[in-house]
Amino acid sequence: MSDTENATASTSRRAQWRAIGAVVLLCALAGAAALAWWGLVLSKRVTTDNAQIANSQIPVMAQVPGTVATVHVADTQRVNKGDVLLELNTVDAQAALDQSRAALVRAISEVVNLRARAAQAQAAVASHEVALENAERDYRARMPLKGSGALAPELLRHASAQVTLARAELLAAKEQAKAAAVLAGASDIALHPLVRTARADHLKAWLALGRTRIHAPLSGTVAQRVVDAGEQVAPGVQLMRIIPASGFWVDANLKETQLRHVRVGQPVTVTLDLYGRSRELPGRVAGISAGTGATFSLLPPQNAAGNWVKVVQRVPVRIELDESAQSDERYPLFVGLSAHVRIDTRDRSGPKLRPVSASGPERTSLDQETVLADRHDQLSASRAAAEFRQTLLEVVGSHAPDAP
């Protein structure tokens, strides 16, 4: 082999070794970059696609029995807080209210009569006191004539008997006055037991009439409406549900091996299959369930059985979504949507369990504000109170004596 051929072969071998060295170097750099990416990023993340959007499902139920007269909403319809969802027939409730009004008038009239009888009984006491005083005066005037022969003994005995009789009649009048005063009650007619009982029945009738209109407890979407006009409904039977327009969260079912570095308060990025990765929802870890999903299932597994096979369990983790992620009407949220969750676990200073709030147990979004049904009950109560005051003035005024 000539020198030229040897030089060419040597150059070719050196080029091959340089190429191999470059490939090895690139592989090493890629491996180092992958290890660095894993150590700095991927090892600080927990991801799962076993997650769903969730929210409260507020049941709507009737508080009084009745027949449905009108249904104002349908499934998938958006409603605002306070909107009338349906109305019941008001004939029975109105009749009960009229009956309670009559009972209230009778109770007030009876108490006014009892007060008049108490006044008469007190006047009778005063009359018997005067009669006793006259009898005692007559007896004392005849006592000096005793034994003088100027007064017959029968007259003196008769005067003594009159004193005894007047005392007995006064005692009986006082007892009757006490009984009449007890029946008449306190000076305020509104505090009398008869009036208070009738007033309570009157308030119940007003409440029952107001509850024939069922209002939306909060803003949201109607779902699972199962009632139509003409149906008979009873208290406690669910008629429909309201899915709130806010307050959504994500239930992410993480493997038990993924929970090691998950802490409350860690930032989370949520993507929905409905909108894809172009729409990312920010959130934070709110808490970790007290047990695995299998434990809370209808038929929990029995690990003491002989055919037990170990499987990795999943634990629900609640993720609260930021309000900004729920307020965009271009990307509405629906209960049950599939989601992909990515938890950033770099900050591991937070607690493993959700801390107890200093103000007491945490409340649901519906409990944090006054339930609208209570507001309508308060309106019915104010109307009942106004009608009671008017009735009281009218009845007491009608029993007042005419001016001379």
CATH architecture of the largest domain: Beta Barrel
> Based on helices, strands and strand pairing, what is the structural class?
alpha+beta
Q: Main sheet: which strands, in order across?
A: 1-10-13-12-11-14
Work out the count of structural domains. 2
Biggest sheet details = 6 strands, antiparallel, barrel
Cα distance spanning the termini: 155 Å
- Number of helices, counting only DSSP H or I runs of 4 residues or more: 5
Could you spell the SSE succession in H and E letters? HEEEEEHHHEEEEEEEEEH
| Model regions low in confidence, pLDDT < 50 over at least 5 residues | 358-371
Q: How many strand elements? A: 14
The 3D shape can be described as elongated
Task: Summarize, please.
This protein folds into two domains: 175 residues, OB fold (Dihydrolipoamide Acetyltransferase, E2P); 144 residues, Helix Hairpins (Orthogonal Bundle), CATH 1.10.287. The protein has a six-stranded antiparallel beta barrel with strand order 1-10-13-12-11-14.
